[in-house]
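Fill-in record for G-protein coupled receptors family 3 profile domain-containing protein.
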Amino acid sequence: MQLTLNLMIFVSLLWMAGICPAASKANPVSCRLGAEPQMSGLSMNGDFIIGGIFSIHNYMRLDQNTYNTRPLQLQCSGRELRFARAMEFAIHEINNRTDLLPGITLGYEIHDSCAAVAMAIKVVFQLANSVDPVFNDSDSCSKYGAAAVTAVIGESGSTPSISMARILGLFGIPQVSPYATCACLSDKRQYPAFFRTIPSDHHQAAALARLVKHFGWTWIGAVRSDSDYGNNGMASFLKAAQEEGICVEYSEAYYRTQPRSKLERVANVIRRSTARVIVAFLASGDMRILLEELLRDPPRPLQWIGSETWITDPEFLRFNMCSGAVGFGVPRSVIPGFREFLLDLTPAKALKSPLLTELWERSFSCSLKGKTGSSDGTRECDGSEHMHALQIPYTDTSQLRITNMVYKATYAIAHAIHGAICNDTQCDKTTKFILDQLKRVNFTMKNGFQVSFDSRGDPVAVYELINWQFKKDGALDFMTVGQYDSSKHRGQEFSMSRVPASVCSESCLPGTRKAVQKGKPICCYDCIPCAEGEISNLTDSLDCVYCPPESWPNERRDTCLPKPVEFLSWDDTLSIILTAFSVAGAFMAVSVAAIFYKNRTSPIVRANNSELSFLLLFSLTLCFLCSLTFIGRPSEWSCMLRHTAFGITFVLCISCVLGKTIVVLMAFRATLPGSNVMKWFGPPQQRLSVLAFTLIQVLICILWLTISPPFPFKNFKHYKERIILECRLGSAIGFWAVLGYIGLLAFLCFILAFLARKLPDNFNEAKFITFSMLIFCAVWITFIPAYVSSPGKFTVAVEIFAILASSFGLIICIFAPKCFIIVFRPDQNTKKHLMGKVQSKAL
């Protein structure tokens, strides 16, 4: 039979390759397995068994410095183990469904090929022929028709997949690869049972050529893996590039097991090349070694264009020299519940599989078997270990690309089995050949991905265009910037959603300006924040511009906002407090006037010149109320009113106090024998003196308002971020003349009161005037530096405080003692009492 003949030929080839170490002389095509069968890493029984082959372990050099002397070491790939567990997860998920294979249990037998072709072939024979150690062509075809597995998922690499596909094709067992991309595997004459869920490199090569053409790169370099994957992929790319009119400066090949001299030669070709764009059709292991070699003597910046094996591998993001790299990868996906499945691993579950045991012990550096006394001194796991705490490729589900291909492959086989054995009512467990059904598979996964195969066993080629870009924290990350879909019409397959970033410096955002970095090209620059008071409202601004005087930048410094206007407004807390004191002072003055008026015939009121006292109380009331003119938004009228009202009312007040002081002195002189001085300073003269003093201030104010009056002014200098609305003095001479005149009268009043301080007690008002003038002068002397140094609205507040403080000083020192006697000591408010005090003093 044809199947037997093919087996005889292929077994002969295996014997020549050394896989069947001995053959019988009596029957030259009979052989015995020369080694023990390989035990599965993960397995579960079922009605139908699906085989799985993954490169969970692979050989690699850990130290580039000992490249020529250090042997290859077997290392566990957490990513490939994740692929294997994706198959396991999918089978458990299928077994729990009622709409797919009802009443049927799928099993699995997953093996590790260690990335070795010989091991992959051995495992394939084991899966196809059970674990029978003897093969003999005299056995009936039915023996070999009863394969141990229904289908096989794997391998990840193209080279082992090619060998597996030849063997499985002879047995008629379908193979569905999640990661073998070699275009050669689409040949159904050589590989009739091969299928894959990842697109062929034929499409990827065409997409890469279209990408290079899109950016106008016509002079490029090329480097590839010296393997079936790299050689076939690059051959397809070079053909497509030639059709697009792209010239290739060099095309170099390298494989990680080759001598270091070959690696150095390839690296030097790249360094000396004039092409700044390089297409790398390399497997991950080869690409890693090449980049590490290039880091020894970095070339000029290159634009890397990568194949799907490394362009989406997170382990390569540490190579900043590849920033800006672009390439096509299979679409990113989400598998609901898969991450929880991976993390749901306990020591008890791990012990059921040697692969999971190794993962646990390597990840936590402890022994699950409790061999604390082992030669390597590994501690025993104590139960504090949790998979959730790990950040390793096994637990990384952020980039489920190839993992999803495994997931799709498992479901494709399950749907093929369902189509072969199930009808509307039941499923038959006896049928195991599903090859024809697999060709007709066409369904949509629950995560939205379509699963189907064309006549060559390939899926529809859909890629994401990946660009390596820097994040805000300075780390590289994958960004999807476009798509390639082979199902679309010719010329429309390739589309870009955004232009890949390939810049020396990121664009400067509004609020910053560009500053070229010293000694670097013009494309390299720093983004400098705009200076205080400046903005830039465009991206990549060369300069910042000043805001108008009445505006100020916002926090981002990308627009000008109106400056807030500051003045002592009525709703300000400070204004409310000052208003309360002003009104209280005016009320006090009115109350004292009422007390004096009610007791105007009493000796103490008459003895202290009641007419001037009432005029003084009236002027004090005006002094308290004039402080209110300083509150509120400054205007032309309010600015003129506040200063003139203050100057005139205070001169009126001081004139009254000065008149009272002169009266005291004149009255004492009049008591001397032969003195008639009081007739020269009687009430008419007192009124005239007050009027004269006040008219002088009125004249000063009129001149001030005529020549250069106060006016509202927007002060932009004191604060940069806000406007101070204040009253400018207009003429500083006028202001200081008004203030100086008040000070002159106050000083004169203080001197006269001081001279009269030792007069008899019935004329002791001079003492109180002395104290009041002392307070008055102290307030206004301290006012001057406070007024000059206070900013903004506080300048006005200081002036109001000086007015109120001096007014309260006058009313309290002059009138409080008299009111106390009138209200609380009426027995002392008698002429007899006053005269008695004089007599006692005379004695």
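KEY FINDING: The two ends are 161 Å apart (CA to CA).
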